[in-house]
Design a protein that fits this description.
By secondary structure, the chain is an alpha+beta fold. It folds into 4 domains: 8-227, no CATH class; 243-410, Immunoglobulins (Immunoglobulin-like, Sandwich), CATH 2.60.40; 444-562, no CATH class; 564-662, no CATH class. Helices cover 22% and strands 30% of the residues. It is built from 13 helices and 33 strands. The strands form 8 sheets. Strands 1, 3, 4, 7, 9, 12 and 14 form a 7-stranded mixed sheet that branches. Strands 2-8-13-10-11 form a 5-stranded mixed sheet, with no helix packed on it. The two termini are 46 Å apart. Residues 1-15, 50-75, 425-437, 513-519, 524-529 and 648-662 have low confidence and may be disordered.
């Protein structure tokens, strides 16, 4: 079977004219191969089709650099929705429909499978869709708006087995707009500014439109079922219940951090309990995880936990030392970023996403899971503590139970333990986080650091909240300078991280010759100061500047006794083949010339051979092949080893670092 690669294209400032009585169009991708089915009888408008631009007919002038591309090939998976195989990012476009006279009915599908990434990177943050002068859609596409409305679309959904998998995870991806329009001189004009256009249909009557939409919906569902024939497993067997248990509104049982709970999971009889028990050392973070199986519908269910008390009155405040969460079901989906689903069990809803404790309607027979994340105070006296656990439906108390915490007579020491972090790039730099200066950006930055500290992660992945300096001089002689405000920002950043960041070093991203994104110093370094096609002379000047700036910045950090920097100058270079790894080696040499410590992440064979001799710090994942050969190579050249994107359970993560002396 042939595999084709449909692509999103970027339609810039131009017009597209279509002749229509009843019309059905899919936009953007190449025609399906001969042995690939088309979607119903839709017309595919491809880059090869001719359109009217300024009165002249010519092919579309699109460019892939400004477009996302669907990876529909042997390494990925077919989109769950056939409509999502193509589309156009209309930046500033007019679509003219030659319809004749009389009212027309139109329906549009808008969006992408990529959660609106394309528009987040677009030049304009305004999205406007209008027809015949009437505004149909108007959005201000700030990062926060995209985060709430696209990246996290469906996050508040409360799972119900009454909803099939198509309705839960596929249908919500595309937005749909229906409207009626009256042609002017036989034409209907759609004006699209920053609109992700997937498909459009037009009919002469509302009845025809309703029939057509139902036909399209049925076909989309059929194709999804054909591509992903997932069937919900049968319920596990129920435990034998006592007469008293049968009268309860739900069954309660204890579960653990990595135990999978699905909508069809059922407790064993021996697991049923009214006492959820955990032990922990002083200054340890531990979770109480427990589940209920409703024996009847439970509207507006919520959970409350009181303070922990010992028999002698000693108390651990739950409000001050714990967070109470409810979990939601989510399909784990594809493995990695390739979008490949190799096992349909990855479409099994799994309870593991934490949400705030707000009331939720619970249906009969679907388990609901809750988690109390407790941090035992360092000065807590050892012994057994108990806390009341209460379940409410609205204001009615449904059932009560208890939590038992056994505090062990010793304290955990975290010094020299492995530090785990997240790459939380740019979070505090989003301009809409401070509209009109109404939000204290420094407080936002402290919240950002303390969130990671609270859960014993390290905030050592350096992110700036404001400019800490700027560059002056001509190419080849640029220097790092600071205004009074930039110097103040610099000290606030490093002092905050030093005090609250739970770290002994900082990782500074500086992929200068890698992604061509400019400096990780947040200095306003020109984005295109260096280009791969530059002459050797210009490249030499750029390299000289990079060396000078790195040296200056590193020495500035050292002079103030701030945590030392590890310059993260290349990430997974095997993704770019041997040239990518050669670029990584060049960046390590630049670090050595500047007198700074170099850091790289690797995930392939070329980097496994070429990076250990030149890097001070090397982090690998399973793609590189973590073995004794790699460990020995790192040690031989005096480097230090770490791991990234490996093991997500406590045992896996801990074992990785113990085994590798990381």
């Amino acid at each position: 079977m042939k595999i084709y690669i449909p692509a999103w294209v970027c339609l810039a400032a131009m017009s597209l004219t279509c002749w229509a009585a009843e019309g059905k169009w899919l936009f953007g991708g190449p025609l399906p191969a001969a042995d690939q089915p088309r979607f119903l009888d839709f017309q595919y408008l491809t880059p090869a089709d001719e359109i009217a631009i300024s009165g002249k007919s010519q092919p579309w002038n699109y460019h892939r650099q400004a477009a996302a591309t669907y990876a529909v090939n042997a390494t990925g998976s077919l989109p769950a929705d056939q409509m999502l195989e193509q589309g156009i990012h209309c930046q500033n476009s007019v679509i003219t429909l030659k319809t004749g006279n009389g009212p027309k009915y139109l329906h549009l599908w808008l969006g992408t499978w990529f959660a609106d990434v394309a528009r987040n990177l677009a030049r304009s943050n305004q999205a406007v869709l209008s027809c015949q002068g009437q505004v149909l859609l108007e959005q201000n596409l700030t990062p926060a708006f995209i985060y709430r409305n696209y990246w996290l679309k469906g996050e508040d959904y409360v799972f119900s087995r009454k909803h099939d998998i198509w309705s839960r995870i596929v249908e919500p991806v595309l937005d749909e707009i229906s409207f009626q329009a009256t042609p002017v001189n036989g034409e209907i004009k759609l004006v699209c500014q920053n609109i992700l256009l997937t498909a459009l249909v037009i009919t002469d009557s509302a009845e025809e439109m309703n029939t057509l939409r139902e036909k399209i919906r049925t076909e989309r569902r059929r194709v999804f079922q054909e591509r992903y024939p997932w069937q919900q497993p049968s319920d596990e067997p129920m435990p034998t219940l006592t007469p008293e248990q049968q009268q309860r509104p739900f069954l309660l049982w204890q579960t653990y951090g990595t135990a999978p709970i699905h909508p069809w999971s059922r407790p064993k009889a021996a697991e049923l309990t009214d006492l959820i028990r955990v032990f922990a050392a002083r200054d340890e973070q531990e979770m109480f995880r427990f589940a209920i199986l409703p024996l009847r519908d439970l509207p507006s269910l919520r959970v409350a936990v009181g303070d922990f008390q010992r028999s002698d009155g000693a108390t651990i405040s739950t409000a001050q030392n714990a967070d109470l969460w409810r979990e939601r079901y989510k399909e784990t989906g594809s493995e990695g970023t390739a979008g490949k689903i190799t096992d349909l069990s990855r479409l099994n809803p799994l309870s593991y996403v934490l949400q705030s404790m707000t009331p939720q309607d619970c249906e009969t027979g679907t388990p609901r899971v809750f988690l109390l994340d407790l941090r035992v105070p360092a000065d807590a006296a050892p012994g057994d503590y108990f806390a009341p656990l209460t379940f409410f439906s609205g204001q009615e108390v449904l059932q009560e139970a208890r939590l038992q915490l056994k505090v062990l007579p010793f304290q955990l020491e975290y010094q020299d333990s492995a530090a785990f972090n997240f790459q939380l790039l740019g979070y505090t730099q989003w301009p809409d986080e401070v509209p009109g200066g109404n939000i204290d950006r420094r407080q936002k930055y402290l919240d950002f650091i303390n969130f990671q500290r609270k859960y014993r992660f390290s905030a050592n992945y350096l992110v700036f909240f404001a400019k800490t300096g700027h560059l002056e001089g001509e190419p080849g002689s640029r220097v790092f300078r600071q205004t009074a405000q930039e110097e103040e920002n610099f000290h606030f950043t490093f002092q905050s991280l030093q005090k609250f960041g739970n770290l002994d070093h900082l990782i500074l991203t500086f992929h200068y010759f890698h992604w061509n994104i400019g400096s990780g110093l947040y200095t306003g370094y020109p984005m295109q100061y260096y280009k791969p096609e530059d002459s050797p002379e210009k490249r030499a000047l750029a390299r000289r500047d990079v060396v000078n700036v790195m040296r200056q910045y590193d020495q500035l950090v050292q002079r103030h006794n701030y945590p030392p920097l590890r310059w993260y100058v290349h990430g997974e270079p095997d993704n770019y083949g041997l040239p990518g790894v050669q670029s990584a080696v060049e960046m390590a040499e630049i670090c050595k010339e500047a007198g700074v410590k170099s850091f790289v992440t690797i995930n392939g064979g070329f980097a496994k051979k070429l990076c250990p001799p030149v890097y001070d710090f090397l982090s690998a994942n399973f793609g590189a092949g973590i073995d004794q050969e790699l460990l020995d190579a790192v040690k031989k050249h005096g480097g230090q080893f770490g791991a990234h994107n490996t093991g997500d359970t406590r045992f896996q993560a801990g074992w990785q670092f113990w085994r590798m002396h990381g």
